[in-house]
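Q: Convert this sequence to structure tokens.
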Amino acid sequence: MQVTLTIPDELAAQLIAAGKDPSRTALEALTLYQRLYDLAAEADPREGIRQGLEEIIRGAGRPAT
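A:
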């Protein structure tokens, strides 16, 4: 899966000034977001069901068989 991120110029400039790579920082943020999303699904079965239904609606799900 390919993801395209747009980092606002001002934020990119701030990250560069702080000695950070904007692309890597964005990837780290996405990874953290996905982990938190997964933890929410594990903590509450209803959240897992909601996320699954959302994926089905987006067409991102896969058949179980």
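The radius of gyration is 16 Å.
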